[in-house]
Specification:
About 45% of the residues are buried. Strand 1 and strand 2 form a beta hairpin. This protein is of the alpha/beta class. The longest helix has 14 residues, at about 100-115. It has helices spanning about 1-15, 70-75, 100-115, 125-135, 160-175, 175-190, 195, 215-225, 240-245, 245-260; strands spanning about 35-40, 40-50, 55, 80-85, 120-125, 140-150, 205-210, 230-235. It contains ten helices and eight strands. Helices cover about 35% and strands about 20% of the residues. It has an eight-stranded mixed beta sheet with strand order 1-2-4-3-5-6-7-8, with helices on both faces. It has a domain at about 45-225: Alpha/Beta hydrolase fold, catalytic domain (Rossmann fold). The model is unreliable at about 1-20 (pLDDT under 50).
Length: about 270
């Protein structure tokens, strides 16, 4: 077990956003990319495909490029909007406070700039947190939201202890001020109360790996507090299950997006 935790830590240390090797130009494609002035900063984004809009949000330390497998898959059926989050990739870092509230407002304002009234949302890790906050703070913007490896608290009730200790050590020892800002964000945020989750009306698909950095019970608690939600625990998967088992991940998410949401119960079969 200890060996598995060490391996996971090394993976996250290598790159929090988890970038898959790729020959595409996602994240640096002048034909698909542009900047938008929103919420006091310049946000970089790229658009691919056509159809119903799908917003794809990367995790902490990631970028558009880290979402390459998801863009590849979903651009065939959707109009994919993939931004670099505040202080990530090519999007500006104003150097002041970095909060999930600001990042969520950035994305809402970007959608306004693009004339998108509502969309599907797919978010991984921090992108999942922002996806949930979009559904809470700007409910009209979200048709459905699928999140993988999201947390609503930054402490040991949500995150594996070994990873918390490792993150604290990074903050104390790194000389990279940008890296320190990103890890400090995760140290103190998010702090979302269960009562706020209960205000979400859009259908939500909550996903996690059975060997995730986010504790399984925490994901289940989020699921229990969102009325219109389904839960998917990916077997044999870590915090990066969307990449480790991409085919399964894409099939589950696409099924959720394309089919009408329903809340079924085993008891329905006995009526």
């Amino acid at each position: 077990m200890k060996r598995n935790i060490i391996i996971l830590i090394v993976c996250i240390a290598s790159f929090s956003g988890f970038t898959q090797p790729s020959t595409n130009s996602y994240g640096s494609n002048p034909e698909a990319g542009n900047y938008a002035d929103v919420n006091g900063i310049k946000v970089y984004y790229e658009i691919y495909g056509s159809g119903l809009p799908l917003l794809i949000l990367h995790g902490n330390g990631g970028s558009i490029r880290s979402q390459s497998p998801n863009i590849d898959y979903f651009k065939a059926s959707y109009k994919v909007i993939a931004p670099d989050l505040r202080a990530h990739g090519k999007t500006e870092d104003p150097g002041d406070s970095l909060t999930y509230n600001d990042m969520t407002k950035d994305i809402n304002d970007l959608l306004d700039k693009l004339g998108i009234d509502s969309c599907f949302v797919l978010g991984q890790s921090d992108g999942g947190i922002i996806g949930l906050k979009l559904a809470m703070d700007y409910p009209k913007k979200v048709k459905k939201v699928a999140v993988y490896g999201a947390n609503i608290q930054p402490d040991s009730t949500a995150i594996q202890n070994a990873l918390i200790e490792w993150g604290y050590n990074i903050i104390e020892t790194t000389k990279d001020m940008h890296q320190k800002r990103l890890y400090t964000l995760m140290k103190y945020q998010p702090r979302i109360e269960a009562s706020k989750l209960r205000t979400i009306k859009a259908p939500v698909l909550l996903m996690s790996g059975d060997r995730d950095a986010i504790k399984l019970q925490h994901t289940i608690e989020i699921f229990k507090n969102i009325e219109n939600s389904n839960l998917f625990i990916m077997p044999g998967a870590t915090h990066f299950g969307g990449y480790e088992k991409a085919d399964l991940f894409h099939n589950v998410v696409n099924d959720f997006f394309t089919k009408p949401f329903s809340k079924i119960s085993t008891l329905d079969y006995f009526k």
